[in-house]
Amino acid sequence: MPPPNHKPHLPGMPQGVEITLVVRKGPQQGIRYHLARPEVRIGRRKDMDLILSDTTVSAEHARVFFQEGGLWIEDLKSMNGTLVNDRRIRRSLLQANDRITLGKYELEVQMEVPGPKPEKGVTPSVEPEPSVKPEIEEVWLAGFTPALRQVLIEVVDETLVGHATAFTDGEKVLTEFSARLESDSGPDLIILDIRMPLISGVNTAISIRAFEQGFARPEKIPIAFFGQVPNPVSFEKVLQFCQPASYLPTASRAKEFRMQAVKLIAKAKKGLSGRPSD
User: Between the N and C ends of the chain, which has fewer C-beta atoms within 10 Å?
Assistant: First the structure.
């Protein structure tokens, strides 16, 4: 696990460009994957960086990587091939808004360049915003099964103005979080599966607070926990340490899970601290 003041070096990645792969079509429609490492492997296998679980995707289907200042995609001898803008490729340079087809999935390449910071002594002109900025614009989800992850994405879309970005495990959250802290940015809410693989939701949350302290971040990002707590007494201490934080147990059925997700986001918006059930 990287230390709190860790600043990852990503050779080949363009400076100042934020790149996201967005699933536009397919079983996991709506998932957003931020590229925070020089190479991202995509496939059906569980050890892939971006997991696309449908059988039309090969176990190790393709890789997206940075080279000589550009973003590339390479097919890894997949069964159904890789298409860029409806053209089958073996290897291709990617541009903003390109469409990548992998089996039943269509991914869109989004590239954003944050605006320059104003020089010292210069007061930037501020245009009036058309509407009031919502409290929560960007939500990160980590862990959960693909089905429950999709429910959470739908709830975020229905209850908030912002969007959801899904991560399969805590390690990917921490890698992206440390990278975003360098540019003084990050999500407005993080929802963690308590029992997700590699790094549990509890350890991920504790590491996030350590990162914030290491980067001297003035405001802490709210964290919401979902799942069954093995030790309520110990978890109560975790909630206190990770404030602002909230908690709700996970329901087994999708309909009940949706209702719990709505409650959890409502609690996070109000800044309330939940307590584990006995």
Answer: C
CATH numbers and ranges of domains, the chain: 18-112 (2.60.200.20), 138-273 (3.40.50.2300)
**Nearest residue to 95 via CA among 139, 64, 118:** 64
Measure Cα distances from 261 to 10, 78, 147, 149 in Å.
35, 36, 13, 11
Rounded (10°) angle between helices 201-214 and 232-241: 20
Nearest-CA neighbor of 227 among 204, 257, 270, 198? 257
Angle between helices 254-270 and 146-159 (to 10 degrees): 50
Q: Pairing mode, if any, of strands 138-142 and 99-102?
A: unpaired
Residue 121, sorted as left (phi over 0), alpha (psi -120 to 50) or beta, turns out to be left
Enter the tokens of residue 253: 């059925």
Structure tokens at 191: 């929802």
Per-residue pLDDT tens digits of the chain, which is 278 residues long:
444 333 344 444 555 567 889 999 988 888 888 887 889 999 999 888 888 888 999 999 999 998 876 789 999 999 999 999 999 999 988 888 899 999 999 999 988 755 555 555 555 444 444 433 345 778 888 888 888 888 888 887 777 656 788 888 888 888 888 887 776 777 888 989 988 877 888 898 998 888 888 888 778 888 888 888 777 888 888 888 888 888 877 665 667 777 877 777 776 666 533 434 33
